[in-house]
Design brief:
Elements lengths: L22 E5 L4 H12 L4 E5 L7 H6 L7 E3 L5 E3 L1 H11 L10 H14 L3 H9 L6 H21 L11 H11 L14 H11 L2 H6 L3 H12 L10
Parallel strand pairs: 1-2
Antiparallel strand pairs: 1-3, 3-4
């Protein structure tokens, strides 16, 4: 389903019940966490609808769904609500088992979850390095490069194109959204010593689910600048 709806803000009325044959995703078009869920919905071919949120000015009914006030949030037609991006993806994996994204081997699945745990320490560095102004960033930049080298080593050690083998699996989708934005964030130079990771990025840009959910660096940049100015343009391009 096209991600084409303008965002719901403070005074927007609550959407009605979720139609029987659909699952609903509360999203924000430029949110990398919500993109994880959009990637999985697309990759698994799950029929869904998207309700985009103004994540700065949220209506009260949204806070009742997720008291943390963050997207992504999934809502089923029976009223079940699931939030936190890795948990939404795990839920989709189990609730829609026809096309599996995790490996069936328990150890391989555990390896993906361990890598995700490590990666969760990389995510804040993308923000620190791209959003901080007027501060010496050499220490966090070194930390970021070290962490990218560790990711690169996983690909080298496994001798695979992707993080879970020679085809795209769940872990690739969970890691991806920040790499889509790495050029826009001005951090491409941090990939100089990580050729396998650069190759992974190239391959991921060819993935149909990435193509279906992505924005160009230029579009990401317009949103990012508006966000940094304190006036996020959630509906940019609609
Ligand atoms: N740990 C959360 C983080 C999600 C998140 O931070 N989403 C942002 C948008 S990119 C959000 O909803 N921010 C609104 C807020 O923090 O009030 C997850 O993985 O789902």
């Amino acid at each position: 389903m096209a991600d084409c709806q303008k965002c719901h803000g403070k005074d927007s009325p609550a959407p009605g019940p979720v139609p029987k044959d659909l699952i609903r995703l509360y999203s924000m078009r430029f949110c990398p966490f919500a993109q994880r869920t959009r990637l999985v919905l697309h990759a698994k071919g799950i029929k869904h609808e998207i309700v985009n949120m103004n994540t700065k000015q949220k209506p009260n009914w949204f806070m009742e769904k997720n008291p943390n006030g963050t997207v992504p949030v999934l809502e089923t037609s029976s009223g079940q609500v699931i939030f936190e991006s890795p948990i939404t993806c795990d839920f989709l994996e189990e609730a829609y088992p026809a096309k599996k994204l995790y490996p069936s081997d328990p150890f391989e699945k555990a390896q993906q979850k361990m890598l995700l745990e490590e990666y969760s320490k990389v995510v804040p560095l993308f923000y620190k390095l791209s959003m901080t102004k007027g501060e010496d960033l050499s220490v966090p930049e070194k930390e970021f490069k070290d962490k990218l080298s560790k990711l690169n080593e996983v690909l080298v050690k496994n001798k695979t194109k992707y993080f879970g083998g020679n085809s795209v699996t769940m872990i690739d989708y969970l890691i991806w959204p920040w790499f889509e934005r790495i050029e826009m964030m001005g951090l491409n130079h941090c990939l100089e010593a990580t050729p396998e990771l650069r190759k992974w990025i190239e391959l991921m840009f060819e993935n149909p689910s990435v193509k279906a959910t992505m924005f160009s660096s230029e579009v990401h940049r317009v949103f990012f600048d508006s966000y940094m100015e304190g006036k996020p343009n959630f509906d940019y391009g609609l």
